[in-house]
């Protein structure tokens, strides 16, 4: 189920603005990869190219290749809707549908995919997804109450349950803990550790402790200045990136001596 990602010489544009230039990297299945780097260096932009969410912005486009298990996501025959099912995304702010129940929130992605399901199958999927997101015990007695009634950390786990309910192969997370308290943050980090047994996970984070706690590999992005494209500066095992990076800029960034 888990998939390998290979990016070859990717340039990412917003109209004529080259936001990210020349990224090549490989991500192994069942690993966690952290993207780090200063604000504006293109972490979110690059992340969104991994499930074709970038191109929903008018004028946005890419050059280069993103291969998932050898298949280029950007081949003209590929349906972006299928790509987004295969490569799920969790956002910075938990975004449950406020008027929907907890249960319907979990099923929202599956329903979008038009899957007709018996009530028993739906109930099973809800339980399995909430178990997978480590939320089941906290919500099993109130599945019909609104998702918006949960705490921020619970809402983020609900969004993760919604993402895994469609059985993706890769999960992208853009600063999934930045709106959460430290306890909820640790709960999400524990969950990422568990999800990695089944999924390939990529997480953007500004929290260096988090990157070093949760990830196997770390990619450091940087920009030379305003209006310049972001670039991948260094990519290696997380322990190497934090203890013995090859590039001075990486060392400055991970040790907090930056700017
Ligand atoms: N919708 C957009 N249209 C035009 N330019 C954009 C758009 N979104 C982002 N950019 C530009 O692309 C560059 C990279 O932005 P991006 O949001 O990817 O950075 P980031 O590394 O995720 O930053 P942060 O850490 O603040 O989230 C920035 O110069 C930004 O202004
Ligand atoms: Mg961002």
TrEMBL record:
Domain spans labelled ABC transporter: 5-248
- InterPro entries in UniProt: AAA+_ATPase, ABC_transporter-like_ATP-bd, ABC_transporter-like_CS, P-loop_NTPase, PstB-like
Q: Name one Pfam family in it.
A: ABC_tran
Top-level division of the source organism's lineage: Bacteria
Mark the transmembrane ranges.
none
Which key words are in the record?
Answer: ATP-binding, Nucleotide-binding, Translocase, Transport
Q: Which molecular function terms from Gene Ontology are attached?
A: ATP binding
Q: What is this protein called?
A: Phosphate ABC transporter ATP-binding protein PstB
Q: What species does this protein belong to?
A: Agromyces allii
């Amino acid at each position: 189920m888990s998939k390998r990602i290979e990016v070859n010489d990717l340039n990412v544009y917003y109209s004529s603005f080259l936001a990210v230039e020349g990224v090549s990297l490989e991500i192994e299945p069942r690993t966690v990869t952290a993207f780090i780097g200063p604000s504006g260096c293109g972490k979110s932009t690059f992340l969104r190219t991994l499930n074709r969410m970038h191109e929903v912005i008018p004028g946005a486009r890419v050059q280069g290749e993103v291969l998932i298990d050898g298949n280029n996501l950007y081949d003209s025959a590929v349906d972006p809707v299928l790509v987004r099912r295969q490569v799920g995304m969790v956002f910075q702010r938990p975004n449950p549908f406020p008027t929907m129940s907890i249960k319907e929130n979990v099923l929202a992605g599956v329903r979008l995919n038009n899957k007709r399901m018996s009530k028993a199958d739906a109930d099973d999927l809800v339980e399995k997804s909430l178990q997978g997101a480590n939320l089941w015990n906290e919500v099993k007695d109130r599945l019909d109450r609104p998702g918006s009634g949960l705490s921020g950390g619970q809402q983020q786990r609900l969004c993760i349950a919604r993402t895994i309910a469609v059985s993706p192969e890769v999960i992208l997370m853009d600063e999934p803990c930045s709106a959460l308290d430290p306890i909820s943050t640790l709960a999400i980090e524990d969950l990422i550790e568990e999800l990695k047994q089944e999924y390939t996970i990529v997480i953007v984070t500004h929290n260096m402790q988090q990157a070093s706690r949760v990830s196997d590999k770390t990619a450091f992005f940087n920009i030379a200045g305003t209006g310049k494209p972001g670039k991948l500066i260094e990519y290696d095992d997380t322990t190497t990136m934090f203890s013995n990076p090859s590039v001075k800029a990486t060392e400055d960034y991970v040790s907090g001596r930056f700017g």
